């Protein structure tokens, strides 16, 4: 489903990436796009804080309720995946040709939407979370493989420079 979503958005959404000739301009563009990927994490922190406040009001040092634990786990996993996502996007932005830089905001949107889908499905039940997690993890894995391919096959002479 992820390749279909990315391909459809790449073809049908009417925007192009700005001209980014230098590596530093591409990294700044990636950083700006990655700021939007933090939206589900910040939203999760807010909801986690509110749920902790509501459920811990009666027993502040008691055992965490399931609702509080779900939001805390979501935020923790999302932060870890965001770090992996951001570093892969930064490397990916240096290897992509100019005409494919439109993928950077599309992958950012896919990351944010898939984390929200994971969160909703995780609150429904633990057995439903596989779809949202796979929508987050599989594009991340594809980016990692493309980055390794770019580093070791396309430009091995610039690996350490």
TrEMBL record:
The keyword Nucleotide-binding does not apply. GO terms for cellular component: lysosomal membrane; trans-Golgi network membrane. Keywords: Membrane, Transmembrane, Transmembrane helix. The chain crosses the membrane at residues 34-58, 79-97, 103-124, 131-154. It comes from the Eukaryota. One of its GO terms (biological process) is regulated exocytosis. This is TMM79 protein. It comes from Polioptila caerulea (Blue-grey gnatcatcher). The lineage of its organism: Eukaryota, Metazoa, Chordata, Craniata, Vertebrata.
């Amino acid at each position: 489903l992820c390749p279909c979503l990315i391909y459809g958005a790449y073809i049908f959404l009417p925007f192009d990436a700005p001209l980014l000739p230098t590596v530093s301009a591409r990294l700044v563009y990636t950083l700006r796009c990655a700021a939007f990927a933090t939206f589900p994490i910040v939203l999760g922190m807010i909801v986690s804080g509110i749920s902790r406040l509501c459920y811990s009001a009666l027993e502040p040092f008691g055992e965490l309720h399931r609702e509080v634990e779900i939001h805390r786990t979501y935020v923790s996993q999302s932060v870890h995946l965001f770090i992996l996502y951001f570093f892969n996007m930064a490397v990916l932005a240096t290897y992509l040709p100019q005409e494919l830089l439109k993928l950077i905001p599309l992958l950012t949107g896919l990351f944010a939407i898939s984390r929200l889908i994971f969160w909703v499905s995780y609150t429904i039940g633990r057995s439903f979370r596989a779809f949202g997690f796979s929508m987050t993890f599989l594009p991340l894995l594809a980016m990692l493989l493309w980055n390794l391919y770019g580093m070791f096959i396309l430009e091995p002479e610039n690996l350490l420079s």
